[in-house]
Specification:
This protein is 82% helix and 0% strand. The chain has 278 residues and is mostly helical.
Length: 278
């Protein structure tokens, strides 16, 4: 049946995402959406749940590849689908608005993103049905967006609240705790609180290293943040060592066509550190 085909294609796409193969994931999600779009309206309604999963997955896939117009279109289609049952789907509506706001932020439409995050925050704080971790995610995303628009005081406040919620609701050694600490570290670094930023980056890397395989692609993101802090504090030898570690991890995980670009980018950072230490 079409439902089984869509379900299988979506599962294959998710498996490709887990194995860091975005091109294959996009292909499977696109094929799943094509199957749904060929169905009649009655069959589409019967597949509403898997339809929404496919739209969300493909939208995030496009967004990760900086295809912001394509991802925006899919998020808006998903919102229309969810709003057919607004009360039942209110948490999913808030999550989709959150993703759409993040899409706006990543594509440079920061003011529009902040307005939408504020709308989501109002929805979530007015209804006890929302999971505190969903509220934390909105705070985290809005904090990042405010940081990108240089509104650091508001950003720090939201990011600190988000970290507190995640530490309260999740085990200490959880990747979402690590990610929130990393983003808070980046904000502290921006405002010149380098000592605090370094401590947060070290804590984030320690937690992430306990949650993820040693050479997982995401580990490099944490190492990169710590390297940046070490560079700012004048520990250039450590910064170079950490940056070279990033190169090794990215080369293990990226497609062959992008390994040279990655190495060139990070070798430039190493050269900069070496120039400063000379």
């Amino acid at each position: 049946s079409n439902f089984r085909r869509v379900e299988a294609l979506h599962c294959m796409g998710r498996a490709c995402q887990l194995h860091v193969n975005p091109q294959a994931a996009q292909m499977y999600f696109s094929n799943a959406l094509q199957v749904i779009e060929r169905c009649g309206e009655h069959e589409k309604r019967a597949m509403a749940h898997i339809y929404s999963l496919v739209l969300g997955s493909l939208a995030r896939c496009y967004e990760n590849q900086q295809m912001f117009m394509e991802s925006e279109s899919l998020y808006l289609t998903l919102l229309s689908l969810l709003k057919e049952e607004p009360q039942e789907n209110r948490c999913d509506i808030a999550a989709t608005l959150n993703n759409l706001a993040t899409n706006y932020c990543n594509s440079g439409r920061v003011e529009k993103a902040i307005e939408m995050f504020e709308q989501v925050m109002e929805m979530q704080t007015a209804d006890s049905a929302y999971n505190p971790l969903d509220v934390s995610a909105t705070m985290m995303n809005m904090g990042w967006c405010l940081m990108e628009s240089c509104q650091y005081e508001r950003a720090l406040s939201l990011l600190e609240k988000s970290v507190a919620i995640r530490k309260k609701c999740l085990p200490h050694e959880h990747v979402e705790v690590a990610n929130s600490l990393r983003i808070l570290s980046a904000c502290c670094e921006r405002v010149g609180e380098i000592k605090r930023a370094t401590q947060l980056a070290e804590e984030a890397l320690s937690i992430a290293s306990s949650c993820l395989p040693r050479n997982h692609a995401n580990i490099a993101v944490y190492i990169s943040q710590l390297a940046s802090c070490k560079h700012k504090t004048g520990n250039l030898g450590e910064a170079i060592q950490l940056t070279q570690q990033c190169i090794s991890i990215y080369k293990l995980n990226l497609p062959a066509s992008r390994k040279g670009l990655c190495e060139c980018k990070y070798q430039h950072v190493c050269s900069t550190c070496t120039d400063f230490s000379a």
